[in-house]
Input
Amino acid sequence: MIILLDNGHGFDTPGKRSPDGHFREYAYNRYLAFRIRERLQQLGLDCRLLVPEREDISLQERCRRVNKICQRFGAGQVILISIHINAAGNGQQWMDARGWSCFTSIGETRADSLATCLYEAAMAQLPGHNIRKDYTDGDPDIEKNFYILRHTRCPAVLTENLFMDNQEDVAFLESAEGSQAIVNLHVEGILHYLSL
Output
């Protein structure tokens, strides 16, 4: 199984930062992806960064890269996790929204079970944090027509790892405990999915 980590955005993406400009989403996404990849590779798994570049790579190119790997190895032998940090406002002021969530494309897909594994790990790793769920279709993931989820052939999910415009969430993300919890939930969720 090939595990692809898509660290969202780039240093040149407008916005995508805390209201005080201190927290930059692209940098934190890369930090998470590097640490998750390192842990999974230490376990002998084939984990790859989809976007090693620092600049933003278009969604079309990201999907092309995923689908090229799917074509070579088979879509059933690849999973994609797109890593992001959420925001509730326009980036100008601190907001009250908090929490962790995982998105899949609309309808029943093979990504639903991957998302459920990540949700279980998030509930274990983030006690006291808001885990944002939508059970209207019987599972906890939130369904959206995100481009990266609709246009890739393998099971693909997008995680929103707390909010960059909430001061408490940013403080937690920047702490050693917080960053470790986010890394752990991805690693544990992926390992659970692979064991199914």
